[in-house]
Structures are given as C-alpha cells and as structure tokens.
Amino acid sequence: MLHQKSNLKIKISSAVVAVVLVLGLPSLNLHAQEKTTEAASQTQTTKDSSAHKFVEIMPKFNGDFSSFLNGKFHYPDSAKVHNEEGRSVVQFVVDETGEIQNVEVVKSSDYALLDEEAMRIVKSMPKWTPGTQDGKKVKVYYTLPITFKLVD
Predict the structure, then answer these.
(1) Separation in Å, CA 128 to CA 9, 38, 43
(2) How many angstroms separate the CA atoms of 6 and 92, rounded?
(3) Under a CB-based contact definition with an 8 Å cutoff, are residues 17 and 144 in contact?
(4) 3-state secondary structure 68-137
(5) How far is CA 143 from CA 31, 59, 72, 79, in A?
(6) Whole-angstrom Cα distance, residue 98 to residue 128?
(7) CA 64, CA 84: separation in Å to the nearest integer?
(8) Is the Cα torsion angle 136, 139, 141, 147 positive or negative in sign?
(9) pLDDT tens digits, the chain, 152 residues: what are they?
(10) Contact 118/146 with Cβ under 8 angstroms?
(11) How remote is the C-alpha of 45 from its chain's centroid?
(12) 146 and 21 in contact (C-beta within 8 Å)?
C-alpha cells in the first residue's frame, strides 16, 4: 500500500509539471524570454551569434508535449526525499533542421539535481519544426521554464 501511495505521488508530480509546461507554452517565448534575457547575457559563455531571439514564425514542438513529458520526466529520488522544489529555466537553440543545440540552464532552481533533470528532458526532445524568418528556416533561441513541484 505504501508503494502504491508513493507511485501515485510521483504520477501526480509528473502531471503537475506537464500541466504547467503545456499551459505555459503559448506565452512561453514572450514571457519567459523577457524575464531571462538579462540572466542569459550574464551567464552564457557560448552564444550562437547566428541564432535569432525572435522570428516571424517561432519553432514549434512536434506532437503532444504532455505525452512526451509523461514518458521522459523523472523527479530525482534525492530531490523527493529532501522535498526540493523549484523552477529551472533552460535555454536552447532550435537549428534550421529542428535539432536542439546549446542546452543550458539560464536560471537555476537552486537545486543541481532539478537543473540536471530539466536539461536532460530538453536534450532528449525529438526534432522540432524550425522557426522561419523571411521564408527561410533559421536558428532560434528558445527559453523553457520547467517547474518541479511535489504534490502531497
């Protein structure tokens, strides 16, 4: 019975993260990128000068983002034991082919395990539909906040 309760807690935690991300995606580029621009410029060491911050058509995740998260998300065991929660803001480049590149945390959750999990999730994403500018596919910076919240 205890094991079932623990599994339910993990599933609920995963669902909370998925819901937060899915609901946040439509406004993600404008809201999150504005808040992290200053932090990104201070913490980034390897900027891709050919990547755009904003384009006419922003890159798009292909498929059901919620299903992807449910299949990939893993709340780190140590973070659960220590009740660690937070929000990691991850920035990456979606290149002209839709590949994810230059993944890095631009705002830490203050917990290394949560930041590592956020980066792992982003690095495991399938190809996206690339962004376009003037009818051409281009590299685009994308900023994604990932919230980790344990549910009672």
Answers:
(1) 31, 26, 25
(2) 33
(3) no
(4) HHHHHCCCCHHHHHCCCCEEEEEEEEECCCCCEEEEEEEECCCCHHHHHHHHHHHHCCCCEECEEECCEE
(5) 9, 11, 19, 23
(6) 4
(7) 28
(8) positive
(9) 545 555 555 555 554 454 344 434 433 333 333 333 333 333 344 578 899 999 999 999 999 988 998 899 899 999 999 999 999 999 999 999 999 999 999 999 999 999 999 999 999 999 999 999 999 999 999 999 999 999 87
(10) yes
(11) 19
(12) yes
What the block records as the tokens of 149 is 């919240």
Indicate left, alpha or beta for 117 from its phi (over 0: left) and psi (-120 to 50: alpha).
alpha
Backbone dihedral region for residue 84 (phi beyond 0: left; psi -120 to 50: alpha; all else: beta): beta
Does the global pTM surpass 0.85? no
**Helix, strand, coil percent values for the chain (each to nearest 5):** 45, 25, 30
